[in-house]
Amino acid sequence: MTQRLFFDCDTGIDDSLALIYLLARADVDLVGIASTAGNVPVDVVTANNLAWLELCGRPEVPVHTGSATPLVADLMTTEDTHGPLGVGYAELPTPTIAASPVDAADAWIEAARAHDGELVGLVTGPLTSLATAIRRDATLPARLRRLVIMGGAFHTHGNTTPTSEWNVAVDPEAAAEVFTAFGTGGAPGPIVCALDLTESVVLTPDHVVRLAAAAGSTPVECPDPADERGLRSATGNEIIRHLVDALRFYFEFHDDHDEGYIAHLHDPFATLVALAPDTVMTRPARVAVELTGTLTRGMTVADERWMSPSGPNARIATSTDIEAVFDELIETIGTFARGRALDIVGTAPGESAGLV
Ligand code: RIB
Ligand code: CA
Question: Mutation test of ligand 1: which of 7, 8, 10 has the most ligand atoms closer than 8 Å to its C-beta?
Fold first, then answer.
């Protein structure tokens, strides 16, 4: 059954993998993409989304640009994590397609109204665009079939402050307004993929080897911490080559921060959950966001024992089969990248073209 999905992201390296996975799923109708400022400024997010769409042969998917700044806070970006252009060392072709004139918030509203009750919403960046959409149309939450948010940290250390996760830390007011909006009016609460679980989705160089092999890309490269910094991929498949360049930057960043030569695939995991929510265990909670704490601003606070008079407004993802996550991502993206290479040149690199 085709699932209709609206994707709101701050493309970024892991957002890029999430987008390619969505494009690789023939059973997903990607209704639109909202570009939200976060990892990099919103115009860079927009350019990355357009570039990936063209590389993947999907120029028809509309890309919408959100606000240049959060609702209240000054914009905070993280080029040290995702690279100067948000895609690590990858140098994506300059897109020849343009963003839609409809802004990200109005695109949320139009998509939810056009597919009332059917649309799956997925947010892998700050919640600025979604919160703005809800300010403009309070009926939006109840129109969504499902909402999945990558964000928050509940019983684990933050990755931006000791108590706050990046997507929430960039725009705490937006996150607070979204969680409040889903606590009323009968809208099903979002599934929240927080660091507690997403930091268990640990990509290693061996997974990159498997991905290149699944795409039939040669040579198969295995990024190594001993490699020269910034070494560029020479593998034949264009999508895999850009992904290897992006992921190498991500590996180096995590290694530099004593997490090992690995990468956390927060957003691709949330994407799998958006399309197959039964693949995760969840627990209900009342989630709110601290806005005024000197040390705790941007902290996501979960009431999991009904201490607050209001009932639950979210479901926190608590466990999943991590190996199955990687099997699905590698197989789906690898097969898609292989097919894309065939579309482009008629033959996979290294295979003969026609009769010889
Ligand atoms: O905290 C991880 C999240 O922040 C991911 O979505 C990553 O892309 C960044 O946006
Ligand atoms: Ca993101």
Answer: 10
The secondary structure of residue 164, as a DSSP letter, is B
Mean local confidence (pLDDT), 298-305:
97
Instruction: Return the bridge partners of 28, or none.
Output: 3
| 74 DSSP 8-state letter | P
Is 341 within the bounds of a domain?
A: no
Please report which helix (H) or strand (E) contains residue 285, including its range: strand 280-289
CB 59 within 8 Å of CB 53: yes
Q: Rounded CA gap, 48 and 189, in Å?
A: 30
| pTM, entire model | 0.96
Residues 38-79: pLDDT tens digits?
999 999 999 999 999 999 999 999 999 999 999 999 999 999
Residue 159 lies in a domain: yes
Amino acid at 98: A
Q: Please report whether residue 289 resides in a domain.
A: yes
Q: What whole-number distance in Å separates Cα of residue 181 and Cα of residue 312?
A: 12
Tell me, yes or no, whether 164 lies in a domain.
yes
Identify the CATH number of the domain in which residue 36 sits. Answer: 3.90.245.10
Q: CA of 210: how far to CAs of 18, 218, 322, 328, 338, in Å? A: 17, 12, 16, 12, 13
| Residues framing ligand 1 (Cβ under 6 A) | 10, 12, 14-15, 38-39, 124-125, 150, 159, 165-167, 266-267
Confidence of residue 354 (pLDDT cuts 50, 70, 90): very low
pLDDT mean over 343-352: 58
Distance in angstroms (rounded) separating the CA atoms of residues 253 and 98 = 31
Which residue is closest in CA terms to ligand 1's atom 1? 166
Give the mean pLDDT of the chain.
95
178 φ/ψ angles, rounded to the nearest 5 degrees: -65, -50
pLDDT in tens, 263-298: 999 999 999 999 999 999 999 999 999 999 999 999
60 CB-near residues (< 8 Å, 6+ apart): none
- pLDDT tens digit sequence for 166-181: 999 999 999 999 999 9
